[in-house]
Design goal:
6 strands; elongated; six-stranded antiparallel beta sheet; single chain; membrane; 7 helices; alpha+beta; 269 residues
């Protein structure tokens, strides 16, 4: 009797694995494209479009960004395709007191160093302020054009390796890196996520619902897919609020989906 029960389960496992293999191949190709192709082509396409509209050296992105380095807080207006930062503002603090504000019209990356142009500096004292105008001056910072480009570029379009490097950079600066890690784990765990969805789909075909009308199975499938998406969307901000690792925001619905699929498949066997 046990051998008779094992035979259908073995056949079912072969069918599910046969469906899973092409899905995993597609996912691996998607991961490779997301890592090596998509970020570069999107960046080049955006730079080409903006340069056609605005001319040579057009802005690579119009998104502004804030960053902390030591006792300074920076605001970056934009970075151009030729590694020129526009509208740079630096606020320097001493024991939480603002002591200096510096504005530069642009910053150029030359010979592995930054050079500020058209700089206006205001120093703040207890009883007065002093202003100074400078045509050009050096900028001593650990920021590189690559780091600033990641800061200003849409985080969703970054490659997994870029997201990981950006997350580590934010952590080194003492800043929250939950969002970068969330997108990183979503991309890296995509094979597991797709595999769990395949198991759910297989359970609708071969599981207890196989005798139910096709329309009912489609309805259950839509509800399951939406539930999976909504749980992931809810856990993403919850990881920031409650302080648990963003990897669980991706893993929990994925493992739950896989567990339900395996349960229904075994129930059929």
């Amino acid at each position: 009797m046990s051998s008779l029960l094992c035979a259908p389960r073995a056949a079912l496992a072969r069918i599910v694995w046969g469906v899973m293999k092409p899905v995993l191949v597609v996912v691996v190709v998607v991961l490779l494209v997301a890592e090596y192709v998509s970020p570069r082509t999107e960046q080049y396409a955006e730079a080409w479009r903006l340069e056609k509209l605005q001319g040579e050296g057009a802005m690579l992105t119009s998104r502004s960004g804030w960053q902390i380095e030591g006792n300074s807080v920076y605001r970056f207006g934009a970075i151009r395709a030729d590694d020129v930062v526009l509208d740079l503002t630096r606020y320097r603090f001493d024991d939480r007191q603002l002591v200096e504000a510096t504005y530069a019209q642009r910053a150029r990356w030359e010979d592995d160093a930054w050079r500020l142009e058209n700089v206006a500096t205001t120093r703040i004292y207890a009883d007065h302020t002093e202003s100074e105008q400078t045509a050009s001056m050096g900028w001593d910072t650990s920021f590189t054009p690559t780091q600033l480009e990641r800061l200003l570029r849409d985080i969703e379009s970054q490659a997994p390796s870029e997201l990981w490097a950006y997350a580590q950079f934010l952590e080194a600066q003492g800043l929250k890196n939950d969002q970068a890690l969330l997108y990183f784990w979503q991309k890296m765990l995509m094979p597991l996520t797709m595999g769990s969805l395949v198991l759910i789909a297989a359970s609708f075909v071969f599981g207890p619902l196989r005798t139910v009308a096709a329309g009912t199975r489609v309805f259950y499938g839509v509800v399951t897919g939406l539930s999976f998406k909504y749980v992931q969307d809810l856990l993403a901000p919850a990881s920031t609020i409650f302080g648990f690792s963003p990897v669980w925001a991706v893993l929990v619905p994925t493992l739950a989906c896989a567990g339900v699929g395996i349960y229904f498949l075994r129930r059929n066997g």
